[in-house]
């Protein structure tokens, strides 16, 4: 009697447990689109609130538009030529750069010191952090108007206090002259910029691992060496964010100057934003041309900073 090996069971198309395997389903429509459904709303929003206004702004700068808003045809590059021939144009650009660089530099230095202070433990630290938010909670316009009242020549608290203390012989018009108006406006700009920048740097400081500081102490590094070679390099990303955002905000700052001096006397305390606003009263096309110049200037300032700081360089 010969033994015959049992033949393998016939393939019935069923898997383990007698169940038929699930058919391979086609990918759904959303899956085939990949991430497009998720990023499409953001892309549309950027196109609506960023790209389209810029395109419309550039188009307007080449049109001849009446004060009533009626388009009277193309103006070519005449509006830009007229803008560059303005007697105050170069002075306004210089003061705009000075205003931006000074305010951002002072803001970053003071914010770095405050962030370092608030990163330490001391009695009342929680309340000090809350107090720092106050300039941020109030509107910029309200803060500027408050300082304007304080500096008023006839009823301002500063003149009254200094007269009572015998520090001045007569009331001073602090906002009537460029040499005194600019420092006060810069001070207000720094005041309202400190909260955000300080908290940005404070968040950066709190992300630095304590193990790194322990290792530096074991290696015999002093406080200054630790701060220079560990704290500052590891704080760099937060510092760059603070500088870039402040560059954009300070350059585009309008309420402070307009509320305190309205750019006067003349254009002596005007930045390019105030200059642009005043131009619209006489020539909308020229004002649009100034807006294009402003847009290019802030882009150039940010790119110069990023280039100098080598923001994408790996340490």
TrEMBL record:
Pfam families: BPD_transp_1 (PF00528). Residues 1-26 are annotated as: Disordered. It is a multi-pass membrane protein. InterPro entries: ABC_transporter_permease, MetI-like, MetI-like_sf. It is found in: Cell membrane. This is ABC transporter permease. The chain crosses the membrane at residues 36-55, 92-118, 130-151, 181-202, 238-260, 288-306. Its main location: membrane. GO terms for cellular component: plasma membrane. It comes from the Bacteria. Keywords: Cell membrane, Membrane, Transmembrane, Transmembrane helix, Transport. GO terms for biological process: transmembrane transport. Residues 93-305 form the ABC transmembrane type-1 domain. Coiled coil: none annotated. Belongs to the binding-protein-dependent transport system permease family.
């Amino acid at each position: 009697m010969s033994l015959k090996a049992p033949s393998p069971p016939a393939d019935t198309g069923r898997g383990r447990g007698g169940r038929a395997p699930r058919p391979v389903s086609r990918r759904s429509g959303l899956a085939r689109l990949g991430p497009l459904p998720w990023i499409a709303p953001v892309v549309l929003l950027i196109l609506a609130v960023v790209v389209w206004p810029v395109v419309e702004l550039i188009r307007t700068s080449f049109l001849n538009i009446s004060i009533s808003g009626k388009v009277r045809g193309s103006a070519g590059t005449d509006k830009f030529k007229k803008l560059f021939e303005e007697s105050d144009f170069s002075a306004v650009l210089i003061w705009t750069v000075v205003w931006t660089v000074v305010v951002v530099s002072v803001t970053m230095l003071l914010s770095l010191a405050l962030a370092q202070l608030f990163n330490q433990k001391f009695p009342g630290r929680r309340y000090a952090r809350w107090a720092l938010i106050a300039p941020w909670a109030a509107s910029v316009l309200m803060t500027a108007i408050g300082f304007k009242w304080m500096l008023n020549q006839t009823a301002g608290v500063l003149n009254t206090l200094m007269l009572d203390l015998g520090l001045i012989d007569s009331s001073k018009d602090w906002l009537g002259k460029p040499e005194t108006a600019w420092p006060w406006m810069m001070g207000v700009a720094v005041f309202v910029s400190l909260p955000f920048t300080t908290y940005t740097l404070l968040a950066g400081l709190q992300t630095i691992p304590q193990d790194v500081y322990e290792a530096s102490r074991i290696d015999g590094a002093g406080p200054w060496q630790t701060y220079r070679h560990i704290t500052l390099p590891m704080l760099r990303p937060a510092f760059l964010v603070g500088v870039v955002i402040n560059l954009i905000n300070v350059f585009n700052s309008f309420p402070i100057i307009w509320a305190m001096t309205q750019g006067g006397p003349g254009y002596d305390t005007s930045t390019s934003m105030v200059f642009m606003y005043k131009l619209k009263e006489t020539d909308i096309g020229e004002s649009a041309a100034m807006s294009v110049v402003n847009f290019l200037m802030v882009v150039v300032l940010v790119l110069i900073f990023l280039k100098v700081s080598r923001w994408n360089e790996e340490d």
